[in-house]
Write a structure and sequence with these properties.
Length: about 525
């Protein structure tokens, strides 16, 4: 089926490189949002939907993509995915409206999912089970996580160097390379994992409707102030109704997408909770980029340096955690190292939120974040897959994705934004109440501002107005700093808490067990 000597390192590297463009179909364009919004003249709400929709489409299509990735011949699938990605990606350059932009971007996300699963099949067939599963998960995580941050870094530079279209051209070059590699490596066109096609279409539709409701909550929850809006309350109620409908549907389906039998495995239940927990810890990274952009005024290129810091941490931790898993080190050791790194990341940033902070001050804490990701993500994927039979593979995969990506990262990120806004308002109110004649420091600062404006030639009334506005702006910056500090102090406690629980109850004092299901490193 493959070119080259069986088991050769050259072939293995080529097969892994094939996966990279499909992993990063949406990553390279992370920093072009403002330019795309200006290009199409979209409103903030419409553009928020345009960012979320392709992500939800990609996540929602995964069960079907996994099934199709096994049914169609590998060479045909890879080449088709590469050519379709080229077409859909190029179409983004010529679309007349934001709606068409989202449409083709969603098609690109769907094809990327098929490409990921199809390109992973040869690796599984050629190197597993002879290839240790811990190594397989570790390498795939290293490629997926590493390339993600590298592509996002490049994307920021492409956007600043030319404009948002540069990333489109860069991706097209990637897909062309993918097509050439597939043409070389796949000599025989076969479907080695093909089984009789059977798919839970009804359950899939229910799941998509469930995702659609969460999409609405993510896009409009903060602007509608969550539970104070009747439509948000209705949407949350519909979530429970859709979950009930799915549980009813499962009773009349032989092979559902998410089979409740998978939760008979204790590691799946605990693993899903841990993936949710890790997603919450990892989601505070958006706070850092928001702080760098909105408060410090850094441009996208400076913001993109955060990805290099995280990548540096990943380059240390993923190989180390993979080696430890391969050598059958106790799971508790890796969990503790990962949670500790995330704890240090949050506690260091707690002390970084002060006036005059420089971009270099963020490098060390973000390295700790990369270390935490590298320790926790591979072991999480292995742990939730431990002992799960192949027929429940999709159920295990979707349980982890819904816990980490849907509830923790996407919905949790929207809730976190609201929490920070509310904390900011509270701090600003508290600080503003101190701006009175009783507060001599504030009064002296106001007088100093007023004298400066008077010196600039403004009238007494104009100088007073300008001075009050300057003092108010200073209060606003102080309040947002306090809000960020609150978040990171709470998160540092949340990160260190599992360490005490693991040590107190002597959990996971054993190596990883047997893993038979295919790794899905997303």
């Amino acid at each position: 089926m493959f070119a080259g000597k069986k088991g050769s390192v050259f072939t293995l590297i080529g097969l892994y490189i094939l996966t990279i463009p499909f992993f990063n179909g949406l990553n390279v364009t992370t920093y072009d949002n403002s330019q795309v919004m200006g290009h199409f003249g979209a409103s903030t709400t419409v553009f928020t939907y345009s960012v979320y929709i392709p992500i939800f489409v990609m996540l929602g299509f995964m069960p079907l993509g996994l099934k199709l990735g096994k049914q169609i011949k590998v060479r045909t699938m890879i080449l088709s995915a590469g050519f379709l990605s080229l077409i859909f990606n190029s179409a983004l350059l010529f679309v007349p409206s934001i709606e068409w932009f989202v449409f083709f971007r969603s098609l690109l996300a769907i094809v990327s999912v098929i490409g990921i699963f199809a390109s992973m099949v040869p690796i599984l067939i050629k190197y597993n089970p002879a290839f240790n599963m811990a190594l397989l998960y570790g390498i795939l995580q290293f490629i997926q996580k590493g390339s993600q941050h590298l592509y996002q870094y490049f994307g920021a530079h492409f956007t600043s160097f030319h404009n948002w279209t540069f990333g489109i051209y860069f991706l097209n070059v990637n897909f062309l390379i993918c097509i050439l590699l597939a043409w070389y490596f796949y000599k025989v066109d076969v479907a080695p994992m093909k089984t009789p096609f059977q798919f839970d279409w009804r359950g899939w539709i229910v799941m998509l409707l469930f995702f659609l409701i969460i999409l609405f909550l993510c896009a409009e929850g903060q602007t509608r102030n969550w539970l104070s809006d009747p439509k948000i309350v209705l949407a949350i109620g519909l979530l429970f109704i859709m979950a009930g409908i799915y549980l009813l549907h499962v009773r009349f389906t032989n092979d559902p997408i998410i089979n409740p039998d998978v939760y008979k495995f204790k590691n799946v239940v605990i693993g899903a909770f841990l993936m949710f927990y890790i997603g919450i810890m990892n989601g505070t990274g958006s706070v850092v980029t928001g702080y760098m952009t909105n408060v410090l005024g850094f441009d996208s290129v400076l913001n993109a340096l955060t990805h290099l810091a995280i990548l540096f941490g990943l380059c240390i931790s993923i190989p180390l955690s993979t080696y430890l898993l391969y050598k059958r080190i106790y799971l508790a050791t890796i969990w503790i190292m990962g949670f500790a790194c995330y704890g240090f990341y949050h506690i260091i940033l707690f002390f970084r939120f002060y006036p005059g902070v420089d971009s270099s001050d963020f490098f060390v804490p973000l390295v700790f974040k990369g270390l935490g990701m590298g320790f926790l993500f591979p072991v999480s994927l292995l742990y939730i897959s431990e002992g799960v039979p192949p027929q429940l593979s999709t159920s295990r995969m979707m349980s982890g994705i819904i816990a980490q990506a849907i509830f923790a990262s996407l919905l949790g990120g929207a809730v976190l934004g609201t929490f920070i806004s509310n904390m900011n308002v509270q701090h600003k109110t508290g600080l503003s109440q101190q701006l009175s004649s009783v507060n001599k420091m504030a009064e002296n600062q106001l007088e100093s501002y007023k004298k400066n404006f008077l010196y600039m030639g403004l009238s007494d009334a104009e100088a007073q107005k300008k001075a009050e506005k300057s003092l108010s702006n200073q209060t606003s910056q102080a309040s947002i700093l306090l809000a960020y500090k609150d978040v990171y102090l709470v998160m540092s406690a949340i990160c260190f808490l599992p360490i005490f629980i693991i040590l107190l109850f002597k959990l996971w004092r054993r190596p990883i067990g047997r893993v038979e299901v295919e790794p899905i490193p997303i």
